[in-house]
Specification:
Length: 302
């Protein structure tokens, strides 16, 4: 199963199929001192999958905490419970062709036999070219650097498809890499009314063609789901000295973190420790999503 990507330079960083080819979390926690952003990115990728509470997720959290401590922050790691989904069989099949799907969290699984129906294309405005009752909706997103299922261009067509009676929705995440782009999600409850899978643009042509004749498709999303422990990382310095605070939000629901922000954190912390009060940096959670958004602020501009 091909994993999602955030940026072309990080293609497959969270891929389930590529994880075995990456260094293990234990290997990635060596003592070599990184000397560039590229080194930090490589190290972050080396932790493997960052799904909530996973080995790679935990290892990357400890690494970021260590970088903050080395920069002089007092670090806390409060524990929390997060949802997870470990995929087993996630695919779409039509006319003998099949392609992997990335289950959109929080996942609503299908039965082991999947759900079937005519494949109906839905445009960005939620308009379908046939009746959606009992169908599998195929949403072909416009080209973009997608990051969140909260986007109206993602959520609108998905909601419209389920409102029209679709049994499942497959979303083609068209972007610069041709790979699946993971979409950040609400970590508290499913965002859609039924099963949603993400399809790589590179795999989409045959399914888009089949949708023109509404051929019968089957979508299967099965796996192990539940709750498991994870933790936040919060670093604090004395604001009276012109410093701010940094935090790293854990990834809920198996979504994928923004690796570029994670890799920038050690360098940002070093910058602030070297030039206190100059440009405090915050890595902050974005409402119930996996995003680690880097915000650079001027002195006392908060």
């Amino acid at each position: 199963m091909n994993g999602p990507t955030r940026r072309e330079v990080l293609v497959g960083a969270s891929s389930l199929s590529l994880t075995a080819a990456l260094p293990t979390a234990a290997q990635a926690t060596g003592t070599t001192q990184p000397n560039s952003v590229a080194d930090d990115l490589a190290r972050y990728i080396g932790f493997g999958s960052k799904q909530s509470g996973s080995e790679g997720d935990t290892a990357s959290g400890h690494w970021l905490a260590g970088e903050l401590e080395e920069a002089g922050f007092v670090v806390e790691k409060p524990v929390l419970s997060v949802p997870y989904f470990d995929p087993e069989n996630c695919e779409i099949v039509i006319n003998g062709a099949r392609a992997p799907l990335w289950p959109q969290p929080i996942v609503i699984p299908t039965p082991a036999s999947g759900v079937s129906g005519p494949l109906v294309r839905v445009d960005g405005a939620g308009r379908a070219d046939a009746q959606l009752g009992g169908a599998i909706a195929l949403v072909d997103l416009p080209y973009g650097r997608w990051s969140s299922a909260f986007s109206k261009s993602v959520r609108g067509p998905g909601d419209a498809a389920f409102a029209g009676g679709a049994r499942a929705v497959v979303i083609v995440t068209n972007g610069p890499t041709g790979k699946v782009i993971a979409l950040n999600a609400d970590g508290r409850a499913p965002m859609f009314a039924g099963p949603v899978g993400l399809l790589a643009p590179a795999d989409a042509a045959e399914f888009l063609s089949a949708a023109t004749t509404h051929d019968r498709a089957t979508v299967t999303l099965t796996g192990q789901a539940g709750q498991r422990p994870a933790f936040n990382v919060i670093g604090r310095m004395d604001r009276k000295k012109g410093n701010g605070s940094s935090s790293r939000h854990r990834v809920p629901a198996g979504t994928v973190a923004r690796q570029n922000a994670a890799a920038a954190l050690p360098h940002g912390s070093t910058l602030r420790a070297t030039y206190p009060g100059c440009c405090p940096i915050t890595i902050s959670p974005s409402f119930a999503t996996a995003a680690m958004n880097m915000k650079i602020w001027g002195p006392r501009n908060r």
